């Protein structure tokens, strides 16, 4: 019998499971603010609480960002002076840069068609190389330059306004809130009596009419509202009139996009995070751990004094007569996990003492979440 037992690879199992948490942001003390869990995520004239968590909203405008230096962003709109390190993510950006960044990341392949641009591909001509050897590509060599982070395997529907001065709304949720991704069908943005929700396929729609109003990138915590400043959404069939915009245009019931960026709104969503649970299977064979190492069960041993402190000094290991009979079985109350150098790493406590069996194996399962 030994005091330690080596784990086998089959004794350790790692199981991932996904957990979700819901968040709700309500209007703060003034226009453009959010409040959550008692912390205000935008303030007036003072630094935000370092424990505060909030989402930021931006207005992107199709303008020359060299000549137009207008900034956007709600969380630090009134802060002055240097911003502390813990507010590094809560900064304002140029409206033109916001517009172009969103276009590059999520809409570069959807500028001429809301269902995706046709990509010109070269033609492979076998054996057309010099002296009839090798293959040659002829024609235009073009391909999509960006992934655009599609959120569904269905045919995408993304519209992006490209007219001069066109406006888009961007809601940015920090990763510390959404975790690994926003749970599909959980996002809701309310302004007055209008609810914008996600359809689970990466689209933001008006809940009452099912009209599309923008897109959501679940894995980035980004919501893009692409209706025009007059509440017009281009690129859909629905109520559109052919000949205006790409497939027509129709005023959505969602209203002006700037109202969701500058005005008081309520936002809710659920975050997702994968937790990995490691299970250690501690198996005690019938011939193992069937005696006790408790010093009080030994026939020898003594108490020694060192500098005024008393310690029990082990004897030769001989057990007392009352713990050597065939009916004696030790009880397990604690299991320790050690590394290769026999350093104690974790301790598992049983709810009640467990007697070891001299006839069958005893298995104790230890679960550690991280």
Note down, in words, how this protein is organized:
This protein has 370 residues and is mostly beta strands. It has two domains: 9-13 and 277-369, no CATH class; 17-274, no CATH class. It has helices at 95-106, 175-178, 258-262, and strands at residues 12-27, 34-36, 39-40, 56-61, 71-72, 93-94, 123-125, 136-138, 167-172, 181-182, 188-191, 194-198, 203-206, 212-217, 222-225, 232-234, 249-251, 266-284, 301-306, 309-314, 331-338, 344-355, 362-369. β2 (34-36) and β3 form a beta hairpin. The protein is elongated and about 95 Å long. The two termini are 32 Å apart. The model is unreliable at 29-33, 35-52, 77-89 and 234-250 (pLDDT under 50).
Number of domains: 2
Instruction: Outline the biggest β-sheet.
Output: 13 strands, antiparallel
What structural class results from the helix and strand content? Answer: mainly beta
Contiguous helical run count: 3
Distance from N terminus to C terminus (CA atoms, Å) equals 32 Å
Range of strand content:
35-45%
- What is the strand tally? 23
The overall pLDDT average reads 76
Low-pLDDT sequence parts? 29-33, 35-52, 77-89, 234-250
Q: What form results from the Cα inertia axes? A: elongated
Radius of gyration: 33 Å
Helix content, binned percent: under 10%
SSE series: EEEEEEHEEEHEEEEEEEEHEEEEEE
